[in-house]
Amino acid sequence: MAVSETVSALPAVGTKLQVENLNIVFTRDGKTTPVLQGINLDVSGGEFVCVVGPSGCGKSTLLNVLGGFLSPTSGAVKIDGEVVRGPDPRRVFVFQERGVFPWLTVEGNIGFGLFKLPAAERKQRIAHYIKMVGLQGFEEAYPAELSGGMKQRLEVARALAVNPDMLYLDEPFGALDSITRHIMRGELLRIWEAERKTIVFVTHDIDEAVQMADRVVVLSARPAVVQQIVSIDIPHPRDISSPRYLALRDGILQQIGLAHKI
Amino acid sequence: MVRLRPIVFIAVLLVAWQVAVSRHAGYILPGPWGVVGGIADLVRHGFLFKYVVASLFRVTWGFSLAALLAIPLGLTIGWYRRGQMALNPMVQVFRPISPLAWIPLAILWFGVGDASAIFLIFLGCFFPLLLTSINAVRNIPSVYINAGRNFGLRPAALVYRVLYPAVMPQLLVGLRITLGVAWLVVVAAEMIAVDSGLGFLIVDARNAGNRYDLVVAGMVIIGLIGLLLDTAMHSLEKVRSFRWAYSED
Amino acid sequence: MRALAEPNKWERLFWPVVAFAVLLGLWHYLVMWSGTKVFPAPVQVEKGIVELFHKNVLWPDIANSLRRVAIGFGAAVLLGIPLGLSLGWYPAANQVVNPVMQILRPISPIAWIPVAIIFFGVGDNAAIFLIFLGSFFPIVVSCIDGVSNVPSVYRRTGRNFGLSPSQLLTRVVFPAALPQIIVGLRLALGIAWLVVVAAEMVAVDSGLGYLVIDSRNSGKRYDLVVAAMLMIGVIGLILDIGVRRLERFKSIRWGFRNEF
User: Which of B32, B197, B12 has its CA nearest to residue B112?
Assistant: First the structure.
């Protein structure tokens, strides 16, 4: 079980998120289960980091801790130097499209977090983000009338509308078919390049991670430790048949121990 | 300690009740102690057992008859779309008619007595169970039926090995709810149309001497038995082979 | 299996009409065949309905029954929803109160009549109290269930966006629970309608329930008895359809799969 190999091409200045020696142990009926062990991670502002690992290894748990929904058993999570104590609109979660509120229209959903703003500004922001995610014409539609991909875009728009510093995405494309997923990855990158939020993206799809991230954090099976952190130094747009891409991807596959031929 | 909190709450309510009653000297309603006395009275005279048995007897008959008729009928109707289309409007008109509204007809057909009460309970259970069964069949995912036919199941086997397990969870919930309805109806029916049973006890205790301690005692016993019936049905739902429909998601 | 094929649109009207005609025919035939002097044939029931309208008995009775339901049910809604929401929101409170509710719930509202008469006397108020009792518990239970069934994703999202607990309740939990609450309202309204009829048979002297009993007692007018029963059924159905309309709003419809 390797310790983190941080080959980072990004400057250490502007560190946004710091995870220091994080340990999560679940206790239930007297039985203790270590889930995460000794996780160390630094994420810079504006960086796109993917966390991959086998199912059930604790990726989502890690994200929950980063988002303030779970307290660490030991260790600390700091954002901008401040310890994370609870959920905050400065770091917004994006789940699979089931997180969208079905009783609100598209406009209603996007405007959900904007209750502190005056009406005029709210309307403006909503319009801006509807345009950004490409949902024009569906302002008055309800989620039940939208496709999976559209609901996902709605959720991203809702998250962005409150202008957070960080976005946490927990396998957001998991429920989509592979074509839509492909398109959505491009969309997310486009949005990221426009707004440059810091993104932590959890997925079990290694291709997805290598296609999108600046760095890929590979977690082992439970109890999860950081097996390696791979820097993807290919500029966007990435050619997914380029040798460099394939090399990086295969490197990770081998690290996890997955078969090369099916 | 947390487990005791509901008990404490009930105790508090009982005390408040007792206090309210003793403040109004000469008030007709009994306090909790009076109710206990009433229950003891009933046990001593042998009425409690007799009345409980009478009420349960009627419920058993009415409920069982309704289930035996409504479930197969409902499953069949639900299976054939046209059957459901034909009968649904009529069932929907019959359903809101309180079983008690049938009393004059019941007495006309069955006279005053057990048969009338059982008929009323039957009515109260029949329509809900019919609708539950129709619904349950309509809600079977077609993949199950298709899989059954794919495996070459003949109609009889299809019913026994696919239909029945598929509708069971929903039917059990419906049966439990309807049993509750049966218990409500029997009490009401006994207050009006027969001369034994817990419902009758309430009416009689008041009419023959304003024995409100017996009235409230009767109410308490009705509540407890109703709860017992419900709990018993609930544990039936917990039987493993039916639990597939209740999995947490 | 032709029987399983999708039926045509016109059949939606055809089959119920056929079934109804068959039922009427059977009824008529049975009455003729049994030679009963008392039980009405369909034609006599229809005449009975007309007669009730003409004697101006029907409308006041319907109005009285509906009025009692409105007040009793309304009170149950006004008190039951806040209570149910609170109990669902604070499971600790629910754990304390629930056993009491479970004991009170199986007691038929009719069994409360003697107690109700003590507090309210014979008449309208007692009936309204009974209706309130009958509607109250289903509403509370459906609120509790609705709140506890709100998917945790929604609550987490609410907290994520910085909502205070009270905002969370009103802007996330309540809308998310609303479909289930409406199911409870529909159930409770059905019960209210059953109870009002029963209560009117025992404790008051107006309303549809009273009409049923009175028609028999004063003259064995079974044609009027059946006529009143039909009215009860039809109006109960109309009330139910009314609540179903509520379920169609888009901000609620998401909570229902195919209703039948």
Answer: B197
